[in-house]
Write a structure and sequence with these properties.
Helicase, Ruva Protein, domain 3; 5 helices; 0% strand; elongated
Length: 146
């Protein structure tokens, strides 16, 4: 029983009335729904979400598969209807390419700036070390004597 607590359960949000009779179609639906985002819960797949909109998306996906759509056609239909945001793993194309590349480009820019800063500090002339003035030496002697 302790081990079963750590084993992930299979799509707990899918309700019995949503499950397709054909196991092959149901398997395809489960695989596809893992890649679709619940628009209410944000970072949960529609397979994991209990939201009403997630249920509607699960039903819509199954309807498309029963109608004979391929996996790609079913996903394209849902993306066309709800936008690319519905994908848990958006594609790296078009305007999304900028978002995918922004993180690594920012890291490279930060490393370049840090290298230039360190290099500039190393080349900066060092100020001549100045000793204490006579007045400062007298004051220090008085402090140490007290």
């Amino acid at each position: 029983m302790a081990v079963s607590a750590f084993v992930p359960s299979m799509a707990v949000a899918v309700e019995p009335d949503e499950v397709l009779e054909d196991p092959a179609l149901e398997g395809r639906a489960r695989e596809l729904s893992k890649d679709l985002r619940c628009l209410v819960c944000r970072n949960e797949s529609i397979d994991e979400s209990n939201a009403e909109l997630a249920r509607d998306l699960r039903v819509l996906l199954r309807e498309r598969l029963v109608a004979g759509d391929s996996d790609r056609e079913a996903m394209d239909f849902i993306v066309d209807r709800y936008g690319e945001y519905v994908l848990l793993r958006p594609t790296a194309s078009g305007a999304n390419w900028l978002l995918w590349a922004a993180g690594p480009l920012m890291l490279l820019a930060a490393l370049l700036i840090a290298a230039l800063y360190v290099r500039g500090r190393a080349r900066a002339p060092k100020g001549a070390e100045q000793g204490l003035s006579a007045e400062e030496q007298d004051r220090l002697r008085k402090i140490l004597e007290d």
